[in-house]
Amino acid sequence: MIGVTCASGQLGQLVIGLLKETLPASGIVALMRSPEKAEELDLGVEVRPFDYNEPDQIEAGLEGLDALLLISGSEVGLREIQHRNVILAAMGHKLGRIVYTSLLHADTSPLKLAQEHLATELMLAESGIPCTILRNGWYAENYIDTARSALEAGALYGAAGEGRISAASRRDYAEAAAAVLTGTGHEGKTYELSGGPAFSLGDLAGAISEISGTAIPYRDMEEAAYAQALAEAGLKAPWPDFLARMDRQISEGALYDEGQDLPRLIGRAPATIRDVLAASLRPAA
Q: Is the entire prediction scored with pTM above 0.85?
């Protein structure tokens, strides 16, 4: 029995769909905070309530499972204690295996997001449970709304300079997770998962221009000026400072990777940023 946490999220849904291609649905359990969403999602597997903040739910949700895909929580600042709740319960159940979705280069990344991921990795290492760490890079889909905003504004703004981003599609990360969950020889491994070719925000602007048929230049800004521009555009705190700081860290290589773990796991080249944008953007009229 394989359990998938955050099963109502986009990544969780994709993983469950992929697992059903090779495993009987009776061997898959969808674990989610809001199980009432299950009917509209039509996952076709058993659904159990699973709130990272509710130890009793976690205990019941893990009953009878052999393996768990622990998809990291979305509440920044709370994830370390939430993940600890799951790991402690898994230790009590003597769970056979955990696969965890971490962050690219979590042990060296300058991103503040990395701290909770690394803390979780260390807890898993000390748990005694066989584990596999999937250090997922940036989602290419994160740039779909960015592209739409750039088309509305007539330019792509940022503060990342020539920093390069090794993003991959959510589907690719889901395929990697499914491959590890259903494969062998992955215990104790840490995989740095990233797509390619890497691109700068200037390259992103070029892809948007090509797909849309509208010339979209990239306008690079200083971090503080970009944060101010985001705030003036209506973005609520703390996001202007957060996104501007992230762009600066991108300029320092925070989201860049040349590894080949992802294509090896999924058996093909990952989707490119242009592939992802082309599927979502319509050419300008």
A: yes
